[in-house]
Specification:
The chain is an alpha+beta fold. The chain has 6 helices and 12 strands. Strands 1, 2, 3, 4, 5, 6, 7, 8, 9, 10, 11 and 12 form a 12-stranded mixed sheet that branches.
Length: 232
C-alpha cells in the first residue's frame, strides 16, 4: 500500500463516503484544500491544518501522521501531536455558542440502577442543535453526564458530546459501552480516560475518586471519544 498523503486521503474519502470539498468544509479548511492534495498540488500539511485534516478524514492526528510518512515519525513529531491534538477537557462551550442549522444531535439520558450500574437509555431524551465546534468534529450523539466519577472534567448534568468515528487513542476521555444483544435495551456505560489498550482489555482512569479500572473488551466492546461538552 502506497504511504503518501494523497493515497491516504483518497482511501479515507472512499471509506467515509464523501468528496474532498465536503470534507474540507466539515473541518473548517479552505474549500480546495483537500482537493489540492488529491491533485498533487499539496504534499505536506503543517500546523493546525494537520488537526483539521484529521478531523475531515475522521481519524486521530497520530494515525494521519503515521500513515502518511514513509519512515517512522520522530518522537519530536509525536510529542507535538500529543500536545496539540485537542482533548475533551479543552473543548468546553456555553449555550450561547449554539448555532442554528438543519441537523441536530440526539442526546441520551443515563440512569443508575439500585446496584449502582449506569445504563444508557435506548431512545434519545432530547435533541441538541449543532454547536459551532461540530464543524471540526463528527459528533455522533450526546449523553447527559450521570455521575461525579470524572469531575472536574465532566460534571453531572452536563452534556458530553461523543464522536464514534475516531479510533481509540490513549489519553482521550472516552465513553465505554458494555455488551448488549438488543439495540432497544438499556446498555451499560462508563466514562474514563483511556490509559492503555491491549487485545483483551481497556485500562481507564477516573478522577473522583482517582482510580484505575480494567475493562474486558469482550464485555465492553465499544470505546467512543468524548469530543466536548456543553457547560451549564
Amino acid at each position: 500500500m502506497e504511504r503518501t498523503l494523497k493515497a491516504f486521503v483518497e482511501r479515507r474519502l472512499a471509506e467515509i463516503g464523501t468528496n474532498p470539498f465536503e470534507a474540507a468544509k466539515s473541518a473548517g479548511l479552505e474549500r480546495g484544500f483537500v482537493n489540492d492534495i488529491l491533485q498533487g498540488k499539496k504534499s505536506t500539511v503543517r500546523g493546525s491544518n494537520i488537526i483539521k485534516l484529521a478531523s475531515a478524514l475522521r481519524v486521530d492526528v497520530r494515525t494521519l501522521v503515521e500513515e502518511t510518512l514513509n519512515s517512522v515519525p520522530s518522537q519530536e513529531l509525536l510529542d507535538w501531536v500529543d500536545k496539540n491534538e485537542p482533548k475533551s477537557a479543552d473543548l468546553e462551550f456555553s449555550s450561547e455558542e449554539i448555532v442554528s442549522i438543519q441537523e441536530a444531535v440526539e442526546v441520551y439520558n443515563i440512569i443508575k440502577t439500585n446496584d449502582g450500574k449506569a445504563l444508557i437509555e435506548p431512545s434519545p431524551s432530547s435533541f441538541m442543535p449543532t454547536l459551532g465546534f461540530f464543524r471540526l468534529y463528527r459528533i455522533s450523539y450526546g449523553v447527559v453526564v450521570y455521575d461525579s466519577d470524572m469531575e472536574p472534567e465532566l460534571r453531572p448534568g452536563e452534556n458530553a458530546f461523543v464522536d464514534s468515528n475516531f479510533p481509540p487513542v490513549k489519553g482521550n476521555t472516552c465513553l465505554f459501552k458494555g455488551f448488549s444483544d438488543n439495540r432497544r435495551s438499556y446498555t451499560p456505560v462508563k466514562f474514563g480516560i483511556l490509559t492503555n489498550i491491549s487485545d483483551e482489555n481497556w485500562t481507564i482512569k477516573q478522577w473522583n475518586p482517582e482510580k484505575e479500572l480494567i475493562l474486558s473488551r469482550m464485555e465492553w466492546p465499544v470505546c467512543h471519544k468524548v469530543a466536548g461538552k456543553l457547560s451549564r
